[in-house]
Amino acid sequence: MTRADLLFPSEPTQRAIARELYAQAKDQPIISPHGHVDPAILADDAPFPDPAQLIICPDHYVTRMLLSQGVSPASLGVPTLDGEPYETDGRAIWRRFAEHWRLFRGTPSRLWLEETFREVFGVTTAFGPDTADEVYDAIAARLAEPEFRPRALFERFNIEVLATTESPLDDLGRHAKLAADGWGGPGGRVITTFRPDNVVDPEFENWAGNVAKLAEMTGEDTATYRGYLAALRKRREAFIAAGATSSDHGHLTARTLVLDESEATALFEAHLRGDGDPDKAEAFRAHMLVELARMSIEDGLVMQLHPGAVRNHNRWLYGKHGRDVGGDVPQATDYVHGLEPLLSAYGNDPRLRLVVYTLDEDTFTRELAPLAGGYAAMYLGAPWWFLDSPEVLRRFRESVTESAGFYNTAGFVDDTRAFCSIPVRHDVARRIDAGFLARLVAEHRLPLDEAAETIVDLAYRLPKGIFRL
Amino acid sequence: MTRADLLFPSEPTQRAIARELYAQAKDQPIISPHGHVDPAILADDAPFPDPAQLIICPDHYVTRMLLSQGVSPASLGVPTLDGEPYETDGRAIWRRFAEHWRLFRGTPSRLWLEETFREVFGVTTAFGPDTADEVYDAIAARLAEPEFRPRALFERFNIEVLATTESPLDDLGRHAKLAADGWGGPGGRVITTFRPDNVVDPEFENWAGNVAKLAEMTGEDTATYRGYLAALRKRREAFIAAGATSSDHGHLTARTLVLDESEATALFEAHLRGDGDPDKAEAFRAHMLVELARMSIEDGLVMQLHPGAVRNHNRWLYGKHGRDVGGDVPQATDYVHGLEPLLSAYGNDPRLRLVVYTLDEDTFTRELAPLAGGYAAMYLGAPWWFLDSPEVLRRFRESVTESAGFYNTAGFVDDTRAFCSIPVRHDVARRIDAGFLARLVAEHRLPLDEAAETIVDLAYRLPKGIFRL
Amino acid sequence: MTRADLLFPSEPTQRAIARELYAQAKDQPIISPHGHVDPAILADDAPFPDPAQLIICPDHYVTRMLLSQGVSPASLGVPTLDGEPYETDGRAIWRRFAEHWRLFRGTPSRLWLEETFREVFGVTTAFGPDTADEVYDAIAARLAEPEFRPRALFERFNIEVLATTESPLDDLGRHAKLAADGWGGPGGRVITTFRPDNVVDPEFENWAGNVAKLAEMTGEDTATYRGYLAALRKRREAFIAAGATSSDHGHLTARTLVLDESEATALFEAHLRGDGDPDKAEAFRAHMLVELARMSIEDGLVMQLHPGAVRNHNRWLYGKHGRDVGGDVPQATDYVHGLEPLLSAYGNDPRLRLVVYTLDEDTFTRELAPLAGGYAAMYLGAPWWFLDSPEVLRRFRESVTESAGFYNTAGFVDDTRAFCSIPVRHDVARRIDAGFLARLVAEHRLPLDEAAETIVDLAYRLPKGIFRL
């Protein structure tokens, strides 16, 4: 047994088949249609910072696990909002992390980090408290080399296309730079994604100000609902010109709602003048998903929906360190009733592509697979956040395939801001798919040749096709 | 490895045990206590239509999967309600289906179809776009032979008893014909099931008209609640005379409610005069489950409850093609609170047998197993629709056995209208049970002789006993 | 293959690793930080009663399964409340139980009983209807021997510490006796746990009377809210003096609520004067969890929360035989919103330790693991009741490890009143953990040496540390 068999079933029949299937998939180019890499990394192509700043401080999977055992985020280099000092010494952060390495046993973070150390940086020393400095120094040395600049790594990682995610208020300057360098623009290697939460959700911080900024950027009168929609359309055009093929929508629930123009206008205006409330805000968001689906049908952007994250559940963490540092948790999500209005309106329209994600694994069999397996417009996104792990990737296939098949799933997305972890994340998904397909073959449910075609579809052809790349 | 090992675990120890256990079960007669085969098929014993009309057009598992990839039901021969033309050329339908065969990889439909081709029709050619015509012609040729008439297949399938499902408004004429031919009636091979949804659910299309028709059929005054109950009792008697041993109830939720006669009368009358509303309808349905349980205790019909299907979720499909063509989806179901009133009233009464099904796998461990394992009247129905697949059949055993044991489960039901798929569906369940029991044996949790007795109980003795066949 | 491999995966690679890991864990002392053994058993150290009185009558896992197949609890020796006679002949009960032995195939009860017969009593005869008397006689003979007195078994079982559970109204007399004998008190082998449900839940039978009794015991004026809190604090002190290191809270839901003193006082007084209602009761319970968390921070008692049991769902059983005889069932539990107020207040305070249990397996991945993996105060309790079985113990690790790791789980608790089953319950957990870790090793996800350290942590070090033993 060698590391080559990582994550494969240990039963010899299945393992042999898994190896064979994985061999088909492992060298396929990476399609990364959804993620949060900062485009500045690739636009500037500057050397990465020290190993801790690169790998530990911005990874909330890591800092929340340490917080759960009483290690403060500030001591791990997470910036504070209140001016309290936080650790800035990379080596000190790295050692503190290494001391708690055992916490990550059995987690995907351990897998991603180990494989990143080994495959990206060529460090084969087993990581732990005793080897923390050795590993730190080795990675730091590599980071100083030109082959470890972002664009060089992008090539080495065999990424065909990487989509970042920007708000409509972003000027897309980094993407313009990428296009100028031959890296971006329509059909380019680095493209953007239209993510309008901060102008669509009336409860978003400074929503009214954001809507006003939209007017400045587009010349539309966003004090009116019609002008607001026109402004959104203009920004979508700008995003398409910057290479975007999809939009992304992070909502608390999956609720959708069909309102007529006068009702939508009334809600929009109520919020603008400060007369909103949570019910009105939910109704407006729900309606806007339908409105945005209509825009998708017009302009061809694939629509992604990410519902179910209770943002800033850990209020102390939010107060001290702000958003996106590990304080969110999942909640139960109702797709069957939530999506019904949208699907009734456009679910059978083949011009719409709606890729739906979940943080609620309990909906795999009961809701998501039956919906994706029954509406032409709907596809299942890969297991997302908290679920982007080997065990859940396997359960995802075990749960959704029987009702939705493989071809209503949209392929793996890494959804990460950790650029260096992209290869291992895709590799894990390919290995798990190889193992799942190997079991189908070993149980005589699928011939080997069809399994081999399927794994390449999952790794490459499906995401490329569904996301219109 | 050969196809004989279909669906068995590939680990050699478990596979060897699974083979041995399966050998005990595979030739047991089929008990099919719940399904939707049209009794006319067996009453008339006419040759089946062409392969597409037999296998593709009426199978909503197949047509919904194709719809989910943009292939219209009309192009697959599903009749339209609005007069728009639909495909009627069997071979054209068959080819269109074959072109999309890859969509069914990993689904139970693929398994059922492949095994039907092979085992029922003796066609061993691998199915796919290139062999579509060959397979079509081979099946068509068989269908013309007398050995492929319904009754001949029934004998070959080794079916001991098959229950169809009829509404109280059905005159049971086909069952009378079957009885006259020595095939039906009490203790016969083909029996009916009493399914009163269309007269129990005030929101059912034309409910008031159906209640009026009940009066015509029974001579009872169904304009009064007492007369309505008396009419239901008379129809139950007629069904019992036609061989029925069970009733079946398809409800949106599992809610039950104990009302006194005056409250029930008021709800009934409100609906009859058009003063109903959704809450009243839900209350009436909930109450009627308790009323029907009382009738079951009187007349001995085993009561089956199928809750949780959101009917006609896909409204476009419903508008164009009507009911039961793939537009339903599951929703979350609360059994613990929903069934409490009924179970409080009669759950410990051994005269009642209540077989409960689910579309919501998340209730297996939390609700269904603890209830079935704690009330004398309650049994667990086999995984139903969307869940009638190898992976879920396995998870069902893994989830419910520890709290409910094997003996509070009611055996496999195929729940199908696809007559030719009955053997393979039961075979899949037997194979999965063999694999599950093999693991218990391999992990030293159950001796082989007890596992061998158990698998015969599951395949034959339990459904026969629990459904009073 | 031998019984030594009980519950290990049958795949040879995994089995070999599981054996090696289990060898590390199997002789670790038992830490039993939560359970319901009657302390009188160990205080008095009297011989146990006959085998049926010891093993069958008080085990509601057993009596509910038999009830589910129509065997009355009274016929199994469960005392009646209404004076109706119930079986008292141990041998008759035992034979009746043995006749239905097949019902327990695949259940944890079978495993626990078989291993108890074999390992505790040295009875190797296969149990069943034919051997019922032989097994009964063998066990009865053993029970008469001094080596089978409770304290002797405690030593043989290698229990390091066992926590029982008492109400604040308990005078802790048995624990005083244990302390006097060198068995109890702080740091002792048998300690108590503070379980205040009967004085915290205004809907508990005789709550006002219990609150009054609290005044008698403490000298505080529990007619006032401040006095009530002071009385609770005094009882906690008494429990700590009797060795308690934790409190335990059985609530219908996981709801928590932060009220100010005047609001809490108003609710308390409303209930005392009989003006409560279900909403007020829920609010008071929810608030008290926060109040009790504050006390935990002060006095160091680890706080355990057991939500989600619908008590006395089977009302006939409750009416005839009372509480805790098998009539409870689980319900869905919302931890994400329920615990938010408590976690917002104290979730990041390392002085608080909150161990959360569940009856709702669907929350493992979606709620419990993300919360425990993101708050310093929260730990996951072992799968509880209905879930304390091999399949769920395995699914627990498969579901929570990826988000919470191993080190936010609090180790196995047996939660049992069946003293003789304690060793086998812990053994089952160790075997399942060995199997899970073996798979991680076999799939190259964890090195063997780390897995070996982890299994000892899970079996011994974690519960000992987290429960402050």
TrEMBL record, chains A, B, C:
Keywords noted in UniProt: Isomerase
Catalyzed reaction equations: D-glucuronate = D-fructuronate
GO terms of biological process kind: D-galacturonate catabolic process; D-glucuronate catabolic process
Listed GO MF terms: glucuronate isomerase activity
The keyword Isomerase belongs to this UniProt entry's keyword annotation: yes
Gene3D superfamilies: Metal-dependent hydrolases (3.20.20.140), uronate isomerase, domain 2, chain A (1.10.2020.10)
InterPro entries, per database record: Metal_Hydrolase (IPR032466), Uronate_isomerase (IPR003766)
Family indicated by similarity: Belongs to the metallo-dependent hydrolases superfamily. Uronate isomerase family.
NCBIfam families (UniProt xref): PRK02925.1
Name of the protein this chain belongs to: Uronate isomerase
